[in-house]
Amino acid sequence: MTAALIELKGIRQIYRLQDAPPQQVLFDVDLRIDHGEFVAIMGHSGSGKSTLMNILGCMDVPAGGEYWLDGREVARLSPDELAEVRNTRLGFVFQGFNLLKRMNVADNIAMPLLYAGVSREQRRQRAQALLEQLQLGQYARHLPNQLSGGQQQRIAILRALINNPPLLLADEPTGNLDSATSHAIMDLFSQLNRERGITVVLVTHEQDIAAYARRVVRVQDGRIVEDRRQ
Q1: pLDDT reported for residue 185
Q2: Distances (CA, A) of 16 to 13, 53, 54, 89
Q3: Torsion of CA 110, 69, 191, 104, to 10 degrees
Q4: Is a pLDDT exceeding 70 seen at residue 2?
Q5: Phi, psi torsion values for 172, nearest 5 degrees
Q6: 163 Cβ partners below 8 Å, 6+ apart?
Q7: Closest CA to 208 of 9, 52, 40
């Protein structure tokens, strides 16, 4: 069997808040996701799905268990190695777009390349090339507030793709969008998964959005209670 892109073994998470007893939010979670999969993680508010996503994105450290990402145990990585993983191996898409308001579209897309030490001219060229692929080239010099919500989310997706990561993590990516725009965004995720082989893992509480995935993992009370292909 080939190595998994993501492998969680016995992952636990406990939050310790001041003047409050420890609260365990994940209980011995095992999860394997192979290269090229499209997985939706579902669950009600407070189920632990966002905590799980934060661990997958190397933004939170579990209290116990092992997380292997593309053959590397995340707990053994140095802070610099973790930063490099987040910048080059993972692409993040959020509900709130998180675009820099005073920076134009092309520069927003190219931001991860700045941290990777890519020259300004190369950053512009790569950002423009991605924009052209989505027929958004005319918006390169626009500011985010000059775009619709759907256009802003497409820009956020392009920013996540600029370093050609093998894994795209999306946390409620359609939460701020109307129904028609939501489905257009999900069509884009499906296209990226199908045509480029990018592994997509998204968190959603909406069944019609999860229907785009080929596998659904349902989390309840900090445990995986369902894992099915569709």
Answers
A1: 93
A2: 10, 19, 17, 30
A3: -10
A4: no
A5: 45, 55
A6: 87, 88, 91, 112, 113, 116
A7: 40
Q: Identity (one letter) of the amino acid at 36?
A: G
Instruction: Kindly list the distances between the CA atom of residue 94 and the CA atoms of 165, 170, 229, in Å, as whole numbers in the listed order.
Output: 16, 6, 24
* C-alpha distance from residue 193 to each of 29, 179, 180 (Å): 25, 21, 20
Average pLDDT over residues 140-161: 93
Backbone phi and psi for residue 22, each to the nearest 5 degrees, phi listed first: -60, 140
Per the CB < 8 A criterion, the answer to whether 202 and 189 are in contact is yes
> Judging by beta carbons within 10 Å of its beta carbon (0-12, 13-18, 19+), is residue 177 exposed, middle or buried?
buried
Average pLDDT over the chain, rounded to whole?
A: 92
pLDDT in tens, 73-127: 999 999 889 988 998 899 999 888 889 999 999 999 999 888 778 898 999 999 9
Amino acid occupying residue 172:
E
